[in-house]
Amino acid sequence: MFIACNHLFPSSFLIHFPSKHSNFTFFTPPTTSKTLCSSTNAPKKPTRRKSSYGSSRKSVLRKTFKQEQVTFTAPLSDDPLVAIIGGGMSGLLCALQLEKRGVRSTVFDTGVHGLGGRMGTRDIDGMVFDHAAQFFTVSNSMFRELVDEWSQKGFVRQSQGVIGELEAGGHFVPFLSSPSRYIAVNGMRTLADSLLSESSMIEVVRPCWISAIEPYNGMWHLSENGKHRGQFDATVIAHNGKCANRLLSSSGLPLIARQMKRLELSSIWALLAAFEDPLPLLGKTVAPFEGAFVKGIDSVSWMGNNTQKLFGSQNVGQPHCWTFFSTGSFGKRNKVPQENIPSATAEKVKQLMLTGVEEALGLETGSLKKPMYTRVQLWGAALPTNTPDIPCIFDPLGRTGICGDWLLGSSLEAAAISGLSLANHIADFLKSGGSRPDEFAVGLHKDFHPLQGHDIGQFPGLESNKDICEAEVQLRA
Question: Disordered: where is this region (predicted)?
Fold first, then answer.
């Protein structure tokens, strides 16, 4: 069930509000004994930090918990500006919803090729690969209205291809009944690019790695490796993983940082491969299928035919472009720093995944023709494995919130709902003037629980043939 973010939480969820009258103060949580910092001190210049690789999680947590809580008490601007760090589905929809509520925002994103986050697409000499999100389903009424609007504008369309489960040996079982599956018309990233095409109150800055957020004179000051990137009335963290943890570790937002650090993420390898000819399929396999959740093979959990999905019968003469994903367990065992993958590791992973494809299709080892193009990449922070099951998190004292799919699940639908919810919550907070912070604290103490789903995420409403058969047996009984 969808829970509105402006729900009034009981007193046990509220943050202590110190009685200071400067532009902001620092409140020291009970676990620390640091003195209050003056609001008149300018933010320190960012210092070069050592890589977090090798740092123990306990060490990072200790630093997080010792942070002093920043508390803004200065009046909000007449024309407030919100910084959104992350240009995936949740960040973009947060910006768009803020615009509908009359609030300006700036979206900072690290994408070199474009916005989108997990809505990633690569176009290599006309070979198109969706290399993250493969498709999405719809179950929430609010999200359905958005998707219908996107369909009317030609941003997305329903995918009509066959998908199902593929067991080792080439045994394919199509999903007999499943919800409508949606894809962006020319690759998932085009949806991200299209969403902001009609916006007038949203500025996009990319590629940009925000390295510090610092409170000064009643505003948040953002910087990128020492370069000032603007000042803002409120901040949204719309990404996760080690970069978000590093950003929050010294931000003055210990409750926000603590919740972020509770998040656990899987690691998944992606192999993009283009073949001159269609993949050989045995008699047990429906041909051609658009995508398959692979069962019983460690190195492959999904194989998706991008060419079939995006171009259908118009793919005559084109290379056959596939996206293969590993399982989470395979990704964990073969994890390396994703920014600098050793060539030996990349080659090993590629060969293991191609062998897994052969096993899934029931082919003899080594019989698969060599791809004309391959690219291996690691999603080191691929998908959440636990969740607080709440649409958004917001710290009214620090005027900062979090949105993302992991707050509700591991799907584009969850990301969209989270972004919309946080935008409405921030808009309500800004409209209130920030004078009643205790009414707007949300999710700061929410417990997490394990999250179930496919290795490549959740698809609300999608059921396998096995699930359907079991349900029919129960009904007959």
Answer: 37-60
Q: Which amino acid is at 391?
A: P
Give the helix ranges, DSSP H, for 75-205: 89-100, 141-153, 188-195
Render pLDDT for 42-99 as a digit per residue (tens, 0 to 9).
444 444 443 332 334 444 445 455 679 999 999 999 999 999 999 999 999 999 999 9
β-strand pairing of 81-85 with 234-237: parallel
Which candidate, 472, 476, 475, 469, places its Cα nearest to that of 165?
A: 469
State the fold for domain 121-190+266-382+456-466: Polyamine Oxidase; Chain A, domain 2 (3.90.660)
Q: Which CATH number fits domain 11-43+52-115+196-264+386-446: 3.40.50.12780, 3.40.120.10, 3.40.50.150, 3.50.50.60?
A: 3.50.50.60
List, in sequence order, every beta strand (DSSP E) within 238-349. 268-275, 291-295, 302-305, 320-325
Amino acid in the structure at residue 408: L
CA-nearest of 44, 449, 108 to 252 is 44
pLDDT tens digit sequence for 238-279: 999 888 999 999 899 999 999 999 999 999 999 999 999 999
> What are the tens digits of pLDDT across the range 85-109?
999 999 999 999 999 999 999 999 9
CB-CB neighbours of 370 under 10 Å: 9
The residue assigned the tokens 């193009």 is 373
Tell which wins on pLDDT, 26 or 219: 219
For 223, what's the count of Cα atoms within 13 Å in the CB-facing half-sphere? 17
* C-beta separation of 202 from 95 below 8 A: yes
Q: Cβ distance 298 to 394 under 8 Å?
A: no
Name the β-bridge partners of 164: 174, 292
Q: Which of 16, 43, 10, 20 shows the shortest CA–CA distance to 30?
A: 16
In contact, 87 and 109? CB cutoff 8 Å: yes
Category of 151 on φ-ψ map: left (φ > 0), alpha (ψ -120 to 50) or beta: alpha
Question: Measured between alpha carbons, how far is 353 from 374 in angstroms, rounded to an integer?
Answer: 11
Q: What is the DSSP letter of 60?
A: H
Q: Where are the domains of the chain?
A: 11-43+52-115+196-264+386-446, 121-190+266-382+456-466
Neighbouring C-beta atoms of residue 29, cutoff 10 Å: 16
